Amino acid sequence: MNSFFHPLAADEHLEQIAFYESRQAGLGARYLAAFDAAMQHICQQPDQFKVVREPGIRSYRLKIFPFNVIYRESANGVEVLAVSAHRRRPMYWVNR
Question: Is the preceding peptide bond at 90 cis, omega within 30 degrees of 0?
């Protein structure tokens, strides 16, 4: 299954890569690898993870990094709605 980003989620994702890379060389690449592994898992079994909001919006917790991938299935594949920090601004992405 293919995946794609909501435009605001794409911005968040790129900001996280830049932030981690600015903190330590190679850390942005580690974040990206964790995110890519999560997306591979999500795309293989998108309905496996917890529904956090109806209709069918789900969350996958990244390993190592403090973020959840908020997504939903659509006719075009898996749409990433947000890359949400565990503790900041909960549910800010609801209107996407």
Answer: no
